[in-house]
């Protein structure tokens, strides 16, 4: 029996571990680092974004948030297109993570405007009522830029003296938000993953006052964080004087407004509930 021959058993066990290591940890790099997998639109971090990334690591954000969308239907429906290896070419170290106490952030860049992130970082529950994320209001302190240029040189990222000079007067909050807006925003996934409006664009609840309470409740749950509970605007614009056709308002809520940093609510609300929100908004305008 082989267990009675410890030397041979030890050699075989060592050989098995070495083969497994080569297969799982060495060979993959032959195709992971293949130049063919590079994504031309993915650019190196700017000095401000890099400082923000370091703050993200310092505060342990990667302990609660992953940064990789798995090729699973549950992931792609919620977060967008699955992650590709070429997206992480400038990440040293990578921040894929393995725990999701908070949502995945691989596609957070460009989803919300800067003002949303500022408010969320200062008071997470003001934007996401059920959030268990701690407040980071203390990041409004000056950014330490003493090592910024050395970091850029060490990572061989391109920069100019003007880029370093532009860091003067910036806060840690500015840096981490610049980093958040960069994550996942170098690939045009939003265009391919955009929620499109299909079917007849006619409000089925027009002048139906019975849906207003539900429309108001949906607005309070999904819209008030940016537009204010009284529709006076804050992060988003004032909605009290929304003199637009129902179909246009519906398209804005359902598909979002990428240029304005407004996310799409079509997948969350569906058509019927979106129309109820539209009906509520238009009723406020009428009165």
Question: What are the defining features of this structure?
Answer:
single chain; 287 residues; mainly alpha; Cytochrome Bc1 Complex, Chain D, domain 2; 14 helices
How many runs of DSSP E, i.e. beta strands? 0
Q: How many structural domains are formed by the residues?
A: 3
Q: Can you say what the CATH homologous superfamily of the largest domain is?
A: Cytochrome c-like domain
What is the CATH C level class of the largest domain, in words? Mainly Alpha
* CATH A-level architecture of the largest domain: Orthogonal Bundle
CATH fold label of the largest domain: Cytochrome Bc1 Complex, Chain D, domain 2
Describe this protein's structure.
With 287 residues, this protein is mostly helical. It folds into 3 domains: 29 residues; 146 residues, Cytochrome Bc1 Complex, Chain D, domain 2 (Orthogonal Bundle), CATH 1.10.760.10; 75 residues, Cytochrome Bc1 Complex, Chain D, domain 2. It is 46% helix and 0% strand. The chain has 14 helices and no strands. Helix 3 packs across helix 7, helix 5 crosses helix 9 and helix 11 packs across helix 14. The longest helix is centred in the N-terminal third of the chain and has 21 residues. It is globular, with a radius of gyration of 24 Å. The model has no long low-confidence stretch (mean pLDDT 89).
């Amino acid at each position: 029996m082989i267990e009675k021959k410890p030397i041979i058993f030890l050699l075989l066990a060592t050989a098995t571990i070495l083969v497994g290591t080569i297969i799982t940890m060495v060979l993959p790099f032959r195709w992971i680092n293949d130049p063919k997998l590079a994504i031309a639109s993915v650019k190196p971090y700017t000095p401000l974004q890099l400082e923000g990334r370091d703050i993200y690591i310092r505060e342990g954000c990667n302990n609660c948030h992953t940064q990789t969308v798995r090729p699973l239907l549950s992931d792609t429906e919620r977060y967008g297109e699955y992650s590709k290896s070429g997206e992480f070419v400038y990440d040293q170290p990578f921040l894929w993570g393995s725990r999701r106490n908070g949502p995945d952030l691989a596609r957070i860049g460009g989803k919300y405007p800067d003002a949303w992130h500022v408010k969320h970082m200062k008071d997470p529950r003001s934007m996401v009522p059920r959030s268990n994320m701690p407040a980071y209001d203390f990041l409004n302190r000056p950014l330490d830029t003493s090592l910024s240029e050395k970091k850029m040189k060490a990572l061989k990222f391109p920069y100019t003296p003007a880029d370093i000079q532009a860091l003067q007067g910036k806060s840690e909050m500015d840096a981490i938000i610049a980093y958040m807006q960069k994550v996942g925003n170098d690939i045009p996934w939003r265009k391919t993953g955009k929620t499109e409006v299909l079917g007849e664009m006619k409000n089925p609840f027009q002048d139906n006052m019975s849906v207003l309470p539900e429309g108001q409740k949906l607005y309070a749950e999904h819209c008030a964080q940016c537009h204010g509970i009284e529709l006076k605007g804050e992060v988003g614009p004032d909605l009290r004087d929304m003199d637009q056709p129902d179909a246009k308002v519906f398209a804005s809520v359902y598909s979002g407004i990428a240029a304005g940093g407004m996310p799409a609510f079509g997948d969350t609300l569906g058509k019927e509930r979106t129309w109820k929100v539209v009906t509520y908004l238009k009723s406020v305008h009428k009165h």
